[in-house]
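Supplementary Note 2. Why include the ligand at all?

Several targets in our set were suspected to adopt different conformations when bound, so apo predictions alone were not considered sufficient. For every target with a known small-molecule partner we therefore ran a joint prediction. The input for oxa(dethia)-CoA is given below.
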Amino acid sequence: MYASFRSIGAYVPENVLTNADLEKMVDTSDEWIVQRTGIHERRIASDEETTSDMAVKAAKLAIERSGISKEEIDLIVCATISPDYFNMPSTAAIIGDKLDIRNVAAFDISAACTGFIYVLNIAKAFIESGMKKNVLIIGAEKMSAITDFTDRTTCILFGDGAGAAIISATDKKEDAIIDVHMSADGGYADFLMTPNGGTGNPHMSEVGGEAGCFIKMRGNETFKLAVRTLTSDVEKILKKNNITSEDIKFFVPHQANYRIIHAVGKALDMNNDKVVLTVGKYGNTSGASIPMAINDIYESGRLKHGDIMLLDAFGGGLTWGSALVPFAGK
Ligand code: UT7
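The joint prediction is reproduced in token form.
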């Protein structure tokens, strides 16, 4: 059996936070944000809206578009660093409850912005081993809940949203997910982290109390490492599978920063019209950004059955990964 990418869905909250809004909150400017990141605005969930609420809306669309019934789903895996509850229960279990999918394994994974590539590979492995047939994978984030809106170096970057996909078993080789790479190096853990609240610093003394539960990032160093690592990782996956940039219909990178995307796209000789960009309107939605971007090309009617997508991502951990995925939906 092969694993196929059968459908996609996404959801974004209604509330828009513009660069002009941020100018009133911290010492920044629309010009600086656009020039350094490509971001114009991002969506912010309401106080009542949780990560699982957004995930459920994305998942319902993905299930509907897959043509399978929710009773056929036999595993739920959610990538998130902004779960409904930090220790338990898992957001995946809550999503299962809200979708009324019961007695099915459900768990979260923590791989930050690379999360969707990790859950994609987990689904692929479960299906290829014959253990599962239809896996609901999700990337969902309420980044606004772990962002310090007094820190101009991070609060201009992040947004909220969710994306979901159904990965299904198939005997059609042409629909099979071609390859997924995932990697990590914990030696760079302090490049991107939420220092307080876990067992590493349970008393919240390290970085002044609650503020230490928010994202801290060594932005410029992360930026440079991201460009280098992503370029070489993507070159490797293309070479290993004997695929060239010309065979790729859509390059769907994690939407962290327009400049990272542009630098990697250029190094890969990727035509601009193949590069999917949503960072301008949604900002960085961490593990949700790739499925949200895939949904964008699906809903605009550009993504067709058989189109090969190249995915890549880089984030906290540090983690990174890439994937070669033909779209197997309608
Ligand atoms: O998604 C997971 C992976 N994440 C990433 O890959 C993000 C990687 N990093 C980035 O995207 C970029 O590093 C940033 C957009 C975060 C920052 O851009 P940069 O070009 O690396 O700027 P910088 O951090 O080197 O800062 C340059 C200057 C500094 O001022 P001085 O020291 O030169 O006087 C900052 O204090 O810009 C200042 N600055 C700001 N100015 C206006 C930092 N943030 C802001 C701001 N508005 N919001």
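The chain has a mean pLDDT of 96. The pocket of oxa(dethia)-CoA is lined by residues 28, 32, 36-37, 113, 152-153, 156, 219-220, 222-223, 226, 256-257, 260, 284, 314-315 (CB under 6 Å). Comparable summaries for the other entries are listed in the accompanying table.
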